[in-house]
Predict the structure.
Amino acid sequence: MRKNLSLLFTLLYFMAMVKPVMPVLEYLYNQDYIAEVLCINKDKPMLNCDGKCYLAQMIKEQQKEKQHQDVPSADLREYPIGFVSIFEPSFFSSDFTKKNALPWSNSYLGQHVSSIFHPPNFLV
């Protein structure tokens, strides 16, 4: 199941990556048919169009389609974000720290450290 799902997502990703070049691939695959049947300039052989006009038309259509598929913008004024302060936990407020703060005194003298960490006094 997991393998099939990963294969499906890989295939979808590949299709999304190939979609922009699809008109060019279609043109290359059907170039003879496009040049003979679909070309606008088939009655003017000196232009050497060979269906490139059809390719340009397909690319323009794809770009227009892409512009219409853009994500619509949302008006942020319609979505208030003031509700976030309601869910603020009370233990993070400044009143809590002032009321419940423990007094701290520095009782570290530092003398016992110097008695432990020193060079040896005698040689063996």
Remarks:
- The longest helix spans residues 2-18.
- The CA atoms of residues 5 and 11 lie 10 Å apart.
